[in-house]
Specification:
Elements (H helix, E strand, L loop, with lengths): L1 H20 L6 E4 L1 H7 L1 H38 L5 H54 L4 E4 L13 H10 L1
Parallel strand pairs: 1-2
Length: 169
């Protein structure tokens, strides 16, 4: 913790020194890659694929959840009518199905996260390359990701430039 704080302070100090010496030569930019990912055409297509796949998974899991709830309600209603062995057997069956359902829910979440990473990883890399190209062409000293910044003036935001350039390629 102490080392991290020291590194942050040192980094900020180093960044401040050049700006004090030559404030006119420092050009900063900020890019919101998440917003860019959602706004570029390729990102919109990837999002649509993800949403479609997510909806399919959700519908299947929702149907199974309804089945489990119905099974639980039936079990509760039949409790007084069933023998002890039959009740234990039905409860064991219900518990097995409930555990399988929970495992399938976790598996579906992991699958969706992996699919999102696969679909968006390449797009994010391309967006990064576009931001770097803009930085070199326009003489930026530093371009940072918006989510890593506590505050930045709107005039520093080059996200729209990155989106426009990405969509033209």
């Amino acid at each position: 913790m102490r080392r991290t704080l020291l590194l942050i302070t040192l980094t900020l100090s180093l960044l401040a020194l050049p700006s004090m010496a030559s404030a006119q030569t420092m050009k900063l930019g900020v890019v919101d890659f998440q917003a860019a990912l959602n706004d570029v055409e390729e990102g919109k297509k990837a999002r649509k694929v993800l949403e479609t796949r997510f909806e399919e998974k959700r519908m299947g899991l929702e149907a199974r959840r309804t089945e489990l709830e119905t099974m639980r309600e039936n079990l509760e209603a039949q409790k007084a009518l069933l023998s002890e062995d039959a009740l234990r057997g039905k409860e064991a069956e219900f518990n097995t199905l409930a555990v399988e359902f929970q495992q399938d829910m976790v598996e579906a979440q992991q699958e969706m996260a992996l699919m999102e990473q696969e679909l968006t990883g390449g797009i994010l890399e391309k967006l990064l390359n576009v931001a770097q190209a803009i930085g070199k062409e326009q003489g930026y000293t530093l371009i940072v990701e918006a989510q890593a910044v506590v505050f930045a003036d709107d005039s520093l935001d080059i996200t729209s430039q990155v989106i426009a350039r990405f969509n033209t390629k």
